[in-house]
Amino acid sequence: MTKKAVVWIREDLRVENNPAISYASKNHEAVSALYIYNNKYFDKKREAQKWWLSKSLEFFKDSLKKFNISLEIVSGDEIDIFSKIKKNDDITIYWSKVYEPDVIAKGKKIRDIFIKNGINYKYFKGNILIEFQDVIKDDGTPFKVFTPFWKNAEQKYLNKVPSKIFKIKKLDKEFSHFKKTISPKEILPKKNWFKKFEKYWKPSESEAKKYLQELIKNRITDYGNTRDIPGVNGTSKLSPFLKFGQIHVETIWSKCDEVANKSKGYRKYVNELGWREFSHSLINNFPEMLKGNLRKNFDSFPWVENEKFLKKWKKGMTGYPIVDAGMRELYETGWMHNRVRMVVASFLVKHLRIHWMEGEKHFKNHLIDYNEASNVAQWQWVAGCGADAAPYFRIFNPILQGLKFDKDGIYTKKWVPELQNMPIKFLHKPWELESKYQEQIKIIIGKDYPEPIVVHEEARAAALKAFQSIKKKNNFY
Ligand SMILES: Cc1cc2nc3c(=O)[nH]c(=O)nc-3n(C[C@H](O)[C@H](O)[C@H](O)COP(=O)(O)OP(=O)(O)OC[C@H]3O[C@@H](n4cnc5c(N)ncnc54)[C@H](O)[C@@H]3O)c2cc1C
Fold it and tell me: Is the CB of 371 under 6 A from ligand 1?
């Protein structure tokens, strides 16, 4: 065993229940944690997450100090950095898995380098309940439908719920290996729009624990009812913490399991964790879906290229208040409520018939909780071309969605403040208010708030026609 260890941190920025750091601390005299910042993965692709990452690393650095473990942030490519570690550096490398095909492929190359250079290494399970390879059908093939997948995965997890929490041992003194390190501040995006996020989020491990407690204490029982109402704080908002591993999904699971009242809300919540697992299983078993439709029949779908409409969608200026509220919430906070994610995504792919990949790209750059698996799987779910997807012909009516899920207008008025004085009856279809009343409340549609960029019924009919064109060619649904 070497005297020193380096734990390569990727999406596991926590000290509680971190098997890789825990193991290293118990088996080596000195441990350093390494974060490799490769801007190739972030620049103009995941700008919002640069903010979250930068702040998280600051908090994490402080947490590790208490164990005499230094956090070294190195900028560059993982292969170049690891190639420079030599056998006589007397270092073992540890890491936890990340379940994305490209990341796994790179990990394999790194392992080959370590083998070639005689470097000891060991890796651990990542932030998932069950390894995706373990959840397969009786015939050995992967699941494409959520319910049987989750039934199988949940049972497998229950059969081997980990019995121990991994603790870190405090070391005698700090050690650092890398000469050229950077400060977390150097990761911050150049544009200042992220500044607003500071009002809404504190990306630390202790904050994740607070959110979890809050979920267990106040939200989980009624989660089944409130999770769909964006004007109510009804969901856990743990997604960005989960993405960066400030909390492990097993920790969430076990806290939920302690809840005495296994209500419908509890079941629904745990089910959502199941969707996260399912998405990871999908992108790893069907990695081609990261580059295009999982259902190949969709390859001939007549998508529309319309830069003007795409821009209006991104800016929250479509003239459909619930859609615009969602897109503005995203820009302002880096997060969007799940119900509204479905509404805005449906609007883009069905009302505007713009390719789901445009939406996927926009979300990737703007979501602080961006997760390759959930984002791609959910965009394809909404578009109808994914696994166990919502059929394309089921088209959300943005007016009815607003009336149903934001009937008091709390959410819409918050993010579209120019509609503050709009009577609730017209809030989700403001263009129907007679112009004399528009003048009275000083909200002129077309001036103070946009006219709808498409007419719902016409857009719906066009979408169905487009779908018919591929349905005729292929035997669908
Ligand atoms: C078009 C679209 C894109 C999405 N992109 C992402 C993404 O990039 N990253 C991401 O984490 N989620 C994504 N989701 C799923 C979902 O919207 C978010 O996980 C959820 O809104 C996060 O808020 P929360 O933590 O309060 O969720 P809660 O309702 O509290 O759920 C708990 C956890 O379960 C998981 N979860 C919940 N819903 C889903 C779902 N439908 N699919 C997969 N996991 C789920 C998340 O990890 C979440 O943190 C997307 C959904 C849609 C419709």
Answer: yes
Pocket lining: 278 vs ligand 1, CB cutoff 6 Å: no
CA-to-CA separations, 350 to 199, 361, 380, in angstroms, rounded: 34, 17, 12
Write the residue with the smallest CA distance to atom 40 of ligand 1: 275
Q: What burial class does residue 305 get, using C-beta atoms within 10 Å of its C-beta: 0-12 exposed, 13-18 middle, 19+ buried?
A: exposed
Ligand 1 centroid–CA 378 distance in Å is 9
Please report where in the chains the tokens 């796994």 appear, as a residue: 104
Q: Is the pLDDT of residue 473 over 80?
A: no
Ordered domains of the chain (ranges, CATH): 4-126 (3.40.50.620), 127-162+205-285 (1.25.40.80), 296-472 (1.10.579.10)
Share of the chain above pLDDT 90, in %: 92
CA 223 to ligand 1: nearest atom? 29
Which residue has the least CA distance to atom 3 on ligand 1? 375
Instruction: Report residue 167: phi and psi, to 5°.
Output: -110, 150
pTM above 0.85, yes or no: yes
Q: Which residue has the tokens 């003194």?
A: 173
Q: What was the pLDDT predicted at 392?
A: 84
Share of the chain above pLDDT 70, in %: 99
Mean of the pLDDT values across residues 240-253?
97
* Choice from 222, 246, 272 to test ligand 1 binding pocket (greatest atom count within 8 A of CB): 272
Average predicted confidence (pLDDT) for the chain:
96
In 3D, which of 124, 86, 81 has the Cα closest to residue 2?
A: 86
How do residues 395-449 score in pLDDT, each as one tens digit?
Answer: 999 999 999 999 999 999 999 999 999 999 999 999 999 999 999 999 999 999 9
Q: From the CB of 367, is ligand 1 less than 6 Å away?
A: yes
Q: Ligand 1, from 46, 239, 349, 350: best to mutate by most atoms within 8 Å of Cβ?
A: 239
* Ligand 1 neighbour 97 (Cβ under 6 A): no
